[in-house]
Request: fold
Amino acid sequence: MAALKMVGGASAVALLTVGGALLQNSLYTVEGGHRSILFSRMGGLQEKVYKEGLNFKVPWLHKPIVFDIRATPRRITSPTGSKDLQTVHISLRVLSRPDPIKLTTITRRLGLDFNDRVLPSIVNEILKSVVAQFNASQLITQRQMVSNMVREQLVERARDFDIILEDVAITDLSFSPQYTAAIESKQIAQQEAQRAAILVERAVQERQQKIVQAEGETRAAFMLGEAIEGNPGFLKLRRITAAKHIAATMSKSQNKVYLSSDSLFLNIRDTERDEHLYSFGAVPEVGPIVTAAAPIVAAAPVAASAPVLPPVPEFADIPEITVVPEAPAAVPEAAAVPEEVSA
Reply:
């Protein structure tokens, strides 16, 4: 009895072990963002698609095939030709994923490496057909339009293979070195032309400014002449203003300065200049004043009845004086000595 109990216990343990192994092999887990289908040794691929979580299979008979249905990025570079026969290198980034409902069809037609089999070929095909409709310059200026056309045609083309394209974007667009150098030269020439136009416009503006400035100076000189002609005391006022500025500047100096009052407009009561103004008949006559050598000379005016000094005559009015040298005085001859009378 004891032997039978031991055999029965061992058999139960063996059955539990085998049952646990069978149960473990009959279950599998599908991770998030994945789907699975079963391959049966009896009937081939099953049409049913298993979702995320714990799923059942028959050991040895069924083999699960798991697919990643998340969008996978892929970058494809294709050299193409533009409408003006320029070589263009375009890099395209594609986000693709398989259609979860058509996993069995994708496996039958394309296999597990469907991305490598389909995407490079259709991307090159669409890129060449779209880029050939634009010039090289239009590919740069109308890049968004080119990207939209490539995306629409790629999405439609990928649906034929049960592949969903989430996004298509042009990440790089480059030309041949020769064309790039030609574009750079063209841009430099355009910038130089614009710079030359700006210089010409600035020269015209400077010319107009000089004309306006000259007209203003002419008008100012004309008005100054009218002011002097109508009021000769205007020059006197200008002399006084200049003398005030000169005196203010000299007063700020730490050194002692001695200047002639006849220079730098310091002698604001210069008689000779006043007499020149009096010739216009607009300023009353003032008697002579006494001046001295000082920064600013202040002198009391002389009575109005004092005589006015006559103006200094011009050199042309002075008569020419001829100096005749005097003849040397004659030396008297010595008196004749009488000859001695001989005895």
Confidence is low (pLDDT under 50) at residues 280-343. The two ends are 229 Å apart (CA to CA). Residues 123 and 300 are 107 Å apart (CA to CA).
